[in-house]
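Reading a protein record of the kind used here takes little practice once its layout is understood. The fold follows as a row of integers, each naming the local backbone shape at the matching residue. With these conventions in mind, the following record can be read line by line:

_____
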Amino acid sequence: MLTEAVVGRPDARLRPWVDRYLGYREDAPAPLVRREVAGAFVVLILGWGAPLDVRDPRVTGRGTSGNAFLAGPFDGWCATRTAGTGVGVQVILTAPAARRVLGLPLGELANQVVPVDRVAGWLADLRDALAGAGGWPERFARLDAALTARLTATDPMDGRLRAAWRRLDASGGAVGVAALADEVGWSRRHLAVRFRREFGLPPRTVARLLRFERAYASLGRTVLTAPAAGAEEGWAERAARWGYYDQSHLIREFQTFAGATPAVLARPGSHPSYPG
């Protein structure tokens, strides 16, 4: 169980890129298994202590075990397992933020869980520095310094790609790929190829994930914020409000991205994901 959770507010220069830091301590005297939902974002875990096993159930052997890794973006849910005491910091990065901070196309990370020392030496050094720091304020200050330095050292992304992401995000995934391509002045094919290379997933999949993230947040089950669903609404009404064709469409998407129906996830005591 999560025995300590400390939220850190990043330096003002980082806030367009990083929403917050989550410092955590988790004690699991018995194996603790969770289901982590899909997302168009990247999860950075810089931890020490008990390792975390992460497995993609769609592909045998896909996953990793460790306490410092990068995950995603993912277009399916994953299973995690840990036992013992884990301590660390979790940072959730939007795809544009991860592309800029990491300095590599996210096509190399899509549907992957990769130890940080295989991605960048500075991340492994940062993990060691956080582990040796005297407390959470010092750790968050070290994160500020490292991430600010990365933003200074990496080149800005193509403005049309940034615009395409902002448009999709602002619409909650409601804008079509053809309209998106017209708006940025590219062909659909060129947009799809560039978008997938830089952000890890095709724009159509990202649109589905953005819609799912908002629906999932409405269940009160994520670090993202959104209004709570009305208690008097049925699932068909909620499906329409969240942008799905019908209740069946909503259920299929939840089973793909969360491994369970929204009704199951809405029950008290159901599997948590991304503790916040």
Residues 222-231 have pLDDT under 50 and may be disordered.
